[in-house]
TrEMBL record:
Cofactor: binding comment: Binds 1 zinc ion.
CC cofactor: Zn(2+)
Family, per entry: Belongs to the peptidase M3 family.
Source lineage: Eukaryota, Viridiplantae, Streptophyta, Embryophyta, Tracheophyta
Cellular component terms per the entry's GO annotation: cytoplasm
InterPro entries on file: MetalloPept_cat_dom_sf, Neurolysin/TOP_dom2, Neurolysin/TOP_N, Pept_M3A_M3B, Pept_M3A_M3B_dom
Protein name listed in UniProt: (thale cress) hypothetical protein
Keyword Zinc: yes
Subcellular localization, as worded in the UniProt entry: Cytoplasm
Gene3D superfamilies, alphabetized: Collagenase (Catalytic Domain), Endopeptidase. Chain P, domain 1, Neurolysin, domain 3
Amino acid sequence: MFVFIGNLGLPGCDTVCVNLSAKEILDLAEEIIHKSTRVHDAVALVSLDKLSYENVVLPLAELEARQLSLIQCCVFPKMLSPHDNVRKASTEAEQKIDAHILSCRKREDVYRIIKIYAAKGESISPEAKCYLQCLVRDFEDNGLNLTAIKREEVERLKYEIDELSLRYIQNLNEDSSCLFFTEDELAGLPLEFLQNLEKTQNKEFKLTLESRHVAAILELCKIAKTRKTVAMAYGKRCGDTNIPVLQRLVQSRHRLARVCGYAHFADYALDRRMSKTSMRVIRFLEDISSSLTDLAIREFSILEDLKRKEEGEIPFGVEDLLYYIKRVEELQFDLDFGDIRQYFPVNLVLSGIFKICQDLFGIKFEEVTEVDVWYHDIRAFAVFDSGSGKLLGYFYLDMFTREGKCNHSCVVALQNNALFSNGACQIPVALLIAQFAKDGSGEAVPLGFSDVVNLFHEFGHVVQHICNRASFARFSGLRVDPDFREIPSQLLENWCYESFTLKLISGYRQDITKPLVDEVCKTLKRWRYSFSALKSLQEILYCLFDQIIYSDDDADLLQLIRSLHPKVMIGLPVVEGTNPASCFPRAVIGSEATCYSRLWSEVYAADIFASKFGDGHPNLYAGLQFRDKVLAPGGGKEPMELLTNFLGREPSTQAFIASRTNYSL
């Protein structure tokens, strides 16, 4: 095993090294591949009359557990290292390791041994049996259970799908469409926004169709014609090129699913998720849609009345939604988010999150100072059980933007919990990446409210990872069903809107003894749910579109959105001449047939919060139950079983619907 020389690592956790040089990363990658090859070779050579759990499954399980942290030592620096050569080596190492892992999952000799052992039906623990099933699926996902002809077809289709997906995204990235407007036509846009736009010799502003520009126009521009022009241009992007690409892509995915034994791609994509089938997802989305329709109609009437007062009898279009939602919110909520920002210093928010998690989940945090980090402002923390004092795990915090750092927020599992056959226990280590700012003097800028919510969300993933106690690394931490993965984070977000929490985590920048006043706390909660029915219906529209095209061989992409849009959006037609299918990347790469998953998590998190934590205060008993019954088992059990065991019934959509109705305008 690779030895880290001179590594000042986390106490008792010598397999996580976060500041390897470029050479060390590449050397470690080679060592990982070499060790993995030896283990797979050994499994492949086990005599058929001597197959056992100890010589077939256990070596692969322990290899996976031990190597995850080593792989992450190679891979995560590409996102965070301040050194170009380290990021380059990390990218190269990831490519080599990914290629090796894929080659291992195509080894027929290893698959044959695992398949024969599985057929023996040896008595092993439920978690071990689940892991064995996952091993079999690893190989069968690469077609090893198919005939040679079908396997070639799978490879061909996967290549075709990758090519078409890339072409779709490239078309969008290369789109250079732009519009030109006078200053009067951009009335309502802030001066700072206009100053950042290119100006022509005719004194017109050049507006590209970048999403940030489009969002600003649709939300802030007072001129209805401008909003419609921008919405039409944005919705027509790549229409002639991407619609045919998406049609071919959808058909290729359906063919892939059929070769693998599924009726259509949606069921292929959902088979191992909490939702299970496309029919269940569509029913879930349609149930929420129908439950929110009456509220959405009432919300829409408010917007329509205001547009009529301000613009006369011009018909209300979907392109007007963002603008008039913001207008009504400005009129009904006395919230100055610029002022609110001054109440959320980073360290105060962080200490408040620690206190909430301590009171809620029975865990406490201690900073680890004598430890290697990859940049000077990185912090590391140990997490202990409050009752027993037992060390549960560690996490790093990389909170501030800098050159060379990735530009998104997330949590990365650096090491998963695992139990080994010799009785040793490997503890989890997480890394939380945020994108907070510093001012010119290097001081942390107070957080905007959306940053606060995001930090709570990501910290939910940290808690989820640290509190997991699965015996197998495969089921530990964040390696759970994607439909389930976001539920703990969505749950923790709820406390951002409770007065108790807001007072705990807020304090005026110049006098932190002064938290947000009661009225602002209450208003933030009402603001959270303003026009929530209409916003949810917009999300459901795209989720349904995604689900239908991947569950219906004959779906007409051109007609589907035209019929679906008014049906879901209470009669509002799609913007004239547009088809979102031409510019809907989530349905192409990353969330194909699974766009519903974020909403699914939010709905079930709302049920958990309302049922167990409804008064807005941390409930230690309920929190410990959640930690023990939901977080600890991880991916080794069915998520629906975990939630049903915790709630005492199957999860429901009722709390989600009720929260929107109770706080309606």
